[in-house]
Amino acid sequence: MDRTKDKSTSPAATKLAATVGLAPSDVVAYLRHHQNFLAEHPDLLQVLTPPAVQRGETVVDMQQFMLQRLQTEIARLKNQQRMLIATSRANLASQSRIHAAVLAMLGAPSFEHLIQIVTNDLAMLLDADVITLGVESVAAGQAHLSVRGVQILGRGTVEQLFGADRDVLLHGEIEGDPLLFGSGAGLVRSAALLRLRVSPQAPAGLLAIGARRVNKFHPGQGSELLGFLARSLEVVIAGWLDLPT
After folding, report:
1. Whether the predicted pLDDT of 53 surpasses 90
2. Whole-angstrom Cα distance, residue 181 to residue 174?
3. Planar angle of CA 224, 186, 188, nearest 5 degrees
4. What are the sequence ranges of the domains in the chain?
5. In CATH, which superfamily holds the domain spanning 100-241?
């Protein structure tokens, strides 16, 4: 077979042919005998450079311009699709973690065991590093103490943190607050704070979830699952303490 260079082939085709050990004339001959090849492999249109059509110096080759725009749009849509798939997988994993955490809380055989699950087991279930319960003191002089994994907070702390109408706070890059995270504060570089409204008869509280990875939690993140976790914990605590919700 004649391996001489076909004058109609482009530099890109020549380079490709040399890479796979074929002469440009072999590629041209194959395509001529398989005229549906590009129709059956449309993804190649993203990487092929269309030939410019010369129609005079004052005429713009719109065909090449439109094809280049199409290639750019296909690349953008593919990237968007990859991001959507990655986000969907992350959301599904988060949903599974939250469900496992709620089931663990529901399965607690006692209130003391519930506190242990929340302050120890949930960290592993939620892929976090530090989790604490914060409860506002009902008496003066008890703030900033730790009782069985529960951080005792000063009165008014929860309202000061969340304001009147927010139940979830997400921080992407912070230093852990010892008042919220106790001895584990040094590990915290991002955090989710969830307000707990257990009962009108119970003091204000919060669930503090800390991670050592920056932006594991961040302000742009969806908070519906975290809100569900907080509401579930409120119901479980109220049930054990026989409090109206």
Report:
1. no
2. 12
3. 15
4. 11-76, 100-241
5. GAF domain (3.30.450.40)
